[in-house]
Specification:
Blueprint: H1 2-30, H2 36-39, H3 50-59, H4 66-78, H5 92-129, H6 135-146, H7 149-163, H8 179-213, H9 216-223, H10 228-265, H11 271-281, H12 284-312
């Protein structure tokens, strides 16, 4: 059943990936300016002799028509060749391989905290709402959910880094060689992503909890004398977590995208920083490579959500049963 449900979505994923490849190719070329300055070692593109400009464009295949460039791009993708950077000529896949573990560490840490805080506070707010309370938690979640991550990041830098001098504000220090120092460097970027991301889990869990607490099986459990803690955590919270599972998968894609901005604010050496530097330098191959990785991440996460949701809720993909007596 799960396999048939997922197979029905493969065509949709294929269409999304095809559209992503086209957009991924077109976006860098839609940016104003020319990559000639990067290719030419920082020289003003207009000051380069015409022969030099023509030679550089031909060397990187930029003298071809857009259609020819696209065909070449797709052909390289078929053999997992992301090209070489315009800046230093190094393979793009190497730059991604160096940056990806840092982004996984940042996003992984954030998603765990975001899920735990959002679900816990959302369940508490839903339970308290039944008693006419919990509006303070709702107001706080809405406030953090509406704050731009880059603005919150700069506020945290100003407070904890500059004013109080308690935490480092950029980079990763000695990296994995010093886990304690690395943990200190992770506090502010992880806190930024967590505070701006837990609101979605909070809202979904809160409203789901409110609906479950009004269900018949909760009233039956109360009538059977089942204790309050067991009613909440076993009979109410478990079914209320089903919508939170879907949000979890969506939130992973959101946090990966949000990490691009946060990594730039904190000079964190992940994919976000690599993408930002590539955009500034008009480095087409690096931009295309990082954009593609981000797109694939979102698509894969959605595929995992489809597969695992069918496991969690067997009703997904089950043929509908129509009522009524036979004619």
């Amino acid at each position: 059943m799960v396999g048939r449900h997922l197979a029905g979505r493969l065509g949709e994923y294929g269409i999304v990936l095809a559209a992503a490849v086209v957009i991924n190719f077109a976006l860098p070329r839609a940016l104003p300016g020319s990559p000639l300055r990067t290719i030419g070692g920082g020289e003003n593109a207009g000051a380069l002799p015409a022969e030099t400009q023509a030679r550089l464009l031909a060397e990187y295949g930029l003298d071809q028509s857009v259609w020819q460039q696209f065909v070449g791009y797709v052909g390289k993708l078929a053999v997992l060749d992301l090209g070489n950077s315009f800046v230093d000529g190094s393979p793009v896949i190497d730059a991604i391989a160096r940056a990806l573990p840092w982004t996984v560490l940042l996003v992984g840490s954030s998603i765990v905290l975001t899920f735990l805080i959002g679900v816990t506070t959302g369940a508490l707010a839903g339970y308290r709402r039944r008693k006419g309370k919990g509006n303070g938690l709702l107001s706080g979640a809405l406030l953090f959910d509406s704050i731009p991550s880059f603005w919150l990041g700069m506020l945290l830098i100003a407070l904890f880094g500059v004013t109080l001098g308690l935490l480092p504000t950029f980079g990763v220090g000695a990296g994995f060689a010093d886990p304690g120092d690395l943990a200190l460097h992770l506090v502010l970027p992880v806190l930024t992503l967590t505070l701006t991301g837990f609101g979605q889990f909070f809202l979904v869990t809160r409203y789901s909890m409110l609906a479950v607490l009004s269900a018949d099986h909760i009233e039956h459990a109360r009538a059977r004398g089942i204790g309050q803690a067991r009613r909440i955590f076993r009979h109410a919270l478990r079914p209320a977590l089903l919508p939170a599972h879907t949000v979890l998968m969506i939130e992973i894609g959101y946090l990966v995208g949000g990490a691009l901005v946060v990594e730039t604010v904190f000079a964190y050496p992940g994919l976000g920083r690599v993408t930002f530097d590539a955009i500034r330098a008009k480095d087409f191959p690096v931009m295309q490579g990082t954009f593609l990785v981000l797109t694939l991440t979102v698509v894969v996460v959605n595929a995992v959500a489809d597969a695992t949701y069918a496991l969690i809720d067997p009703r997904v993909g089950r043929p509908a049963v129509t009522g009524g007596a036979p004619a």
